[in-house]
Structures are given as C-alpha cells and as structure tokens.
Amino acid sequence: MCNASLREGSLPATQKMAIITPVVKKPGLDPEEPQNYRPISNLTFIPKVIERIVANQLKVHIADNYCKKT
C-alpha cells in the first residue's frame, strides 16, 4: 500500500480519515460550552508510515543533490 500510494501520489480515502477527539482547552472551563473545546486529530497508522518514508526520501534527495560541496 505504501509503494502504491507513493507511485500514485495519493492515499486511499479510508486512510485520509482521522479520529477526532474534543478536549477541553484549559482546566476549569465549562465543559458544557462547545467553544471551550479544541479538536485532537489522530491519523491511522499507514499515513504516518508514508509520511516518514517521504520525509526520509526527501532528506536523501536534498543531501545528494543540493548539499554537495563545490
């Protein structure tokens, strides 16, 4: 799935969803008021792996092509 996502340049729709958990911004705020919450988004495992793979590939590419001494 990782290689296919990198080849196609996109993720399957099922992997683009996050689990959103509302958390009170500060202790002591009224939990009955919706504006006192902030969203915490948790991605599934595969997008995190792909993000790490892409970051490593970019680091290698930049090091090989742009950081050479002249």
Low-confidence stretches: none
Task: Round the Cα radius of gyration to an integer and report it.
Answer: 19 Å
Order of helices and strands: HEEH
Number of helices: 2
Verbal overview:
The model has no long low-confidence stretch (mean pLDDT 88). The chain has 70 residues and is an alpha+beta fold. The chain has one domain (2-66). The protein is 41% helix and 20% strand.
At a glance:
This protein has one domain. Helices cover 41% and strands 20% of the residues.
What distinguishing features does this structure have?
70 residues; two-stranded antiparallel ribbon; 41% helix; single chain; alpha+beta; 2 strands
Annotate the secondary structure layout:
Blueprint: H1 2-8, E1 18-24, E2 37-43, H2 45-66
Antiparallel strand pairs: 1-2
